[in-house]
Amino acid sequence: MGVSLGKIVKSNSHTDYICQVYGRNEFDPAPGVENYALGTFVRIELEGGKAGALVGLIYDTVLLNPDFGRLGPRLSPETELAMFTPDYLNERAVLVGITAIGRVKADGDVFQGVPLLAANSDAQVIQMTDDEIRAFHAYDGALHLDYLPLLAHMDHPLALHLSLIVLRKLGRLLPECATELAVLSDDLLWRTQIGPLGGMQ
């Protein structure tokens, strides 16, 4: 079972979700920063898992801090705030952006691409295990990366880097597919490092 990361609090579109990561006092054990790193594969539970789950990738992180922009010293130390005004500390949050890249049905069938179903608010977000990532990509005797065009057309500055992170991760998890993944990685690496220079005058 993967690590529980948090809950969906908002969506920007049918495939773009915002997850609020569990804080120290919200879940035991609370997820560590390595559990929601850029390029992490996650499951977004559908109907509590009864309808399977969306498969997504973490593509961004935003920190919320109510102290930012406040002038003057804090009147109480953080230990006292935790005791007398815990809601104040709860205003701090880590939000991660997740792009949906497919779905795993309750019976284990895999679909890659834009999923037809959408997640609800408060849906559980869980980090996928290595075995789950392999099952999502290697089935019917072949490697599947049908969602790569979705990442390539994301309106986000880290879209190409996200694809590169994914391909390198899959190269470690699926060594039998290392050659074809390396070819794709080399092409993306060229596009991220050399390609942009082509538009310079």
Describe this protein with a few key phrases.
single chain; 201 residues; alpha+beta; 6 helices
The pLDDT mean sits at 87
In order across it, which strands form the biggest sheet?
1-2-5-4-3-7
How far from one another are the termini?
Answer: 52 Å
Low-confidence region ranges: none
Helix content: 25-40%
| Tally of DSSP helical segments | 6
What's the story with the biggest beta sheet?
A: 6 strands, antiparallel, barrel
Portion in beta strands: 25-35%
Number of strands: 9
Shape assignment:
globular
Radius of gyration: 19 Å
In N-to-C order, the SSE pattern is EEEEHHEEEHEEHHH
Describe the structure.
The chain has helices at 78-84, 86-90, 130-137, 148-152, 159-173, 178-193, and strands at 4-11, 16-21, 41-45, 53-64, 93-104, 110-112, 124-127, 138-139, 142-143. The termini are far apart. The chain is globular, with a radius of gyration of 19 Å. It is of the alpha+beta class and 201 residues long. The model has no long low-confidence stretch (mean pLDDT 87). The strands form two sheets. The chain has a six-stranded antiparallel beta barrel with strand order 1-2-5-4-3-7. The chain has a two-stranded antiparallel sheet with strand order 8-9. It has a domain at 4-142.
List the SSEs and their pairings.
Elements: E1 4-11, E2 16-21, E3 41-45, E4 53-64, H1 78-84, H2 86-90, E5 93-104, E6 110-112, E7 124-127, H3 130-137, E8 138-139, E9 142-143, H4 148-152, H5 159-173, H6 178-193
Antiparallel strand pairs: 1-2, 1-7, 2-5, 3-4, 3-7, 4-5, 5-6, 8-9
Helix pairs in contact: 5-6
